[in-house]
Specification:
single chain, 148 residues, mainly beta, eight-stranded antiparallel beta barrel, two-stranded antiparallel ribbon, 11% helix, elongated
């Protein structure tokens, strides 16, 4: 290695800059990767829309999930239309190569109390699978389009 190359390598080290997840410049690498206590809810949650089709009925679904996980952990949302007793509050699940959504009825009516939707990813972006009520997961077939 030449003297000139050593000088350039040494200068590059001296000029290294660190940034935290918010983009602010910090002094050390440790500060850049330190756990942030003031993380906004937007940083750990995003939303997408899904449309479930089973041939006879269409459900409008809004899912909130953590984009920093994979498979994405579902943190909330609602089934907003197309199902008896809508809206339904989504209480958990995940979205990845497979999908699982668990929801409970929040609306009025003499409908089931819970629904579970499961499926496998396919192209174009959609999930093919089944859903069922009150603990069942395979009562009805569906294709759920990913609209985000």
């Amino acid at each position: 290695m030449t003297t000139q190359a050593r000088k350039q390598k040494g200068q590059a080290r001296a000029e290294h800059r660190f940034h935290n997840p918010q983009g602010a410049e910090v002094k050390t690498r440790d500060e850049a990767f330190a756990t942030q206590m003031d993380v906004s809810t937007e940083a750990v949650s995003t939303a997408c829309k899904l449309t479930l089709h089973n041939g006879q009925v269409t459900f409008g679904i809004e899912v909130k999930y953590n984009p920093n996980t994979y498979p994405h952990v579902v943190t909330g949302g609602q089934i907003t239309s197309g199902i008896c007793g809508a809206p339904w509050d989504i209480t958990g699940g995940f979205v990845g190569e497979t999908i699982r959504l668990d929801a409970k009825r929040a609306g009025q009516g003499s409908c089931a109390n819970t629904i579970t939707i499961v499926g496998e990813y396919q192209n174009p972006p959609a999930y093919r699978g089944t859903y069922g009520f009150d603990g069942a997961t395979s009562s009805f077939k569906h294709t759920t389009r990913y609209e985000c």
